[in-house]
Amino acid sequence: MKKLKDLDLSLELDKKMYKKKLKMLQYEMLNAQQFLFNNKIGLIIAFEGMDAAGKGGAIKRLTERVDPRGLLVTPISAPQPHEKRYHYMHRFWRKLPQHGQIAIFDRSWYGRVLVERIEGFATEAEWSRAYDEINEFEKQLTNGDYIMIKFWIHIDEDEQLKRFNERAQDPYKAWKLTDEDWRNREKFSLYSEAADEMFAKTDKENAPWCLIPGNNKLYARVQVLKEVIAQIEKEATRRGLHITNVLQPHQLEEIEAAKLEEVATTEEVVVAAAQVKKKRKKKSK
Predict the structure, then answer these.
(1) Of 40, 73, 121, 176, which is least packed with CB atoms within 10 Å of its CB?
(2) Which helix (H) or strand (E) holds 63?
């Protein structure tokens, strides 16, 4: 069972390796998008997580190199008065992508079992039955021509406070910080508990939750791209399809070169660590 306490928030990625991996993965994401378009398969990605966890930054890197004509990014906030006249899932049905398109939700229908539950905007009866409603909603989509992926990017309270203070002092980011964000900090543990229950009840084979350690933004962005590509490949295989390359030969050569360099760098790190360990043993003798 997936739980937030099991995440290793100390995982990091240095900037040099980040840039190499990012370029490689963004090429692969562009290729995957073309595969989805050619096979008329829709991709739906939902992002959740603590305030300032880095959802926007991850979405930016995920979409940076893809064809914008086949992409929809929808930020979700509190429902408008006219939307409250319908079942709460109505507004999400209206924002689904066409087959072959990618739709990204920055916050999602999971607000019913997170903020609406904790802040009292939904009754206990409403948010309790929402788990089954959500599972059925996602099942209907994935039974057809859609792939569903759900991300929770997580940071600890200290990292969140650091990012809040940085935003407050940055005129280009101050708009991101609201009084509501500060109030939500006081309920950090309640949101964590609600998230764990949400994972337990809605992490399904057809619509998995991917929990991403987010204290290091570079690591989180790369992991999101990796998980999206891996899930598309998995679903393609399940459908009896194969993702063929649509990129130009020189682009593919760059990807392969980056992969080989990544492997070489990893091996160098392992060798260096072994040498350090060996030296320590000699000193101790």
Answers:
(1) 40
(2) helix 55-63
